[in-house]
Amino acid sequence: xxxxxxxxxxxxxxxxxxxxxxxxxLYIYDQKVIEEKFNNLKDKIEYxxxxxxxxxxxxxxxxxxxxxxxxxxxxxxxxxxxxxLSLKAGFKPSQIIYTCNGAEKEELDFxxxxxxxxxxxxVNQVEYWGKKNPGSKIGIRLNLNMGSGHHEHTTTGGSxxxxxxxxxxxxxxxxxxxxxxxxxxxxxxxxxxxxxxPKTFEKAAHALLKISYQFEDLEYIxxxxxxxxxxxxxxxxxxxxxxxxxxDDLMSSLSKMRGKDLNLIIEPGRYLVAQSxxxxxxxxxxxxxxxxxxxxINTGMNHLIRSAMYSSYHELVNISKPKDRSxxxxxxxxxxxxxxxxxxxxxxxxxxxxxxxxILDAGAYGYSMSSLYNGRPKPAEILVSKDKVKxxxxxxxxxxxxxxx
Length: 405
Ligand SMILES: Cc1ncc(COP(=O)(O)O)c(C=O)c1O
Fold this sequence. Notes:
The chain has 12 helices and 21 strands. It is an alpha/beta fold. Its cofactor is pyridoxal 5'-phosphate.
C-alpha cells in the first residue's frame, strides 16, 4: 500500500475506487509483493538444490496458488482438502509435500493413492503406512525438543507439543522401518510459525542436520516454515542472506559426506503472502465512555482472527483521513465476543463513521482462518497487479449462509 497525493493505492489503483466497486469489508492482495517475496527467497538462498513448498494453509485462494505455481513454487499441505485444492490449481502430486498431523487412515490411503510425498507424524502412522505399502519411501516429521513462534499457540516443537515424532521414538521408528523395508527419504522439522529470532531457526536446522547422519537414504531435508515478517514498524525484515549462509554450509557438508546432492525444502507461508494483503473495513460506529473510545468496523475476528487469538499486532491506517491528527482509540469488530478487538489504545488518524480503515499485513492466516461465525458473510478477495484488478473470490452470498445453517 502506498500513498500518492493523499490517496492510498495498491499497485496503480486507488483503494477507495476498489471499495466503491466491490464494497467492504474486502481483502486486497498486491501481486507484486508475492512475486518479490518469492524471488527474494529463491535468489538469496544460494544452496542450488532448494525447493520452496508454499504452506497452503496460510492463504489457500486458488488464484494465489496458481500465481505461486507460475513463479516456480511447490506446495506443502496439511489435509486432503488442501491437497485436492493444490491439484486443482495445477500442482502435480510430485510437487506436493503432505504434513500428516493427526491424519486419519483414509487420509493416508489418499496420499498413497495419489503418490504424494508424506511427512509422517507418528509411530502409528509409520506402522500403518508400512503394513499397507511395504518397501515404499516415507518422510518423517521430527520433534527434536525445540519450539518457537510468535505466540505459544504457534509453537510446534518441544516437550509440550503434539507435533512430529519425538526424538525418543526414533529407535522405535527404525524398528518399524526395518520390519516393512521402508525407506526414510526425508526428514522434516517445523518448530513453529512466526519465529521471532532467525538464530532459533538456524539452531533447529543444525539439530536436524546433526541427527540426519543416522538416516542413510535421505533425498531431502525439510526445514519447515516459520519465517516471520515485520508486523510492527520497529521490526526488521528477516536476513535471508545471512540465513542462507548458515544453511548452505550445513547442506553442502551433508551432501559432500553422502556423496550425493540432497534437496533442501522450506515451507514458507506467512513470509510469502502476509505483506501482500490488507483487510479494508468501514467504520460503522463510535462510542466513548469511561475514558475509552471504541471505534467499531464492519469486520471482526470472523474475518481476521489473529488479534483475538494470538493478541497479534497489525498496523492500522485510516485511509480516508491521511492528514488528520491522530487520537487514541480501541478498534473493535462487529462480532459478539469481547475478544473481538484489533487494537487497544492505538493512535489512529481521527476515525469517523464511514471512514475506511486498512488493517495491514493481513495476507497470511487471514481469510484462510475466517469463518461464518455470527452469521456474517466472508469478505470478497481482490488481486491487484499494477493497473489490473481481479475479483478472486466473491463475498459469501447471504443465501448460502442460510443454506449452510
Ligand atoms: C508443517 C508446517 N509447515 C509450514 C508452515 C508455515 O508456517 P509459516 O506460515 O510460519 O511460514 C506451517 C504453519 O504453521 C506448518 O504447520
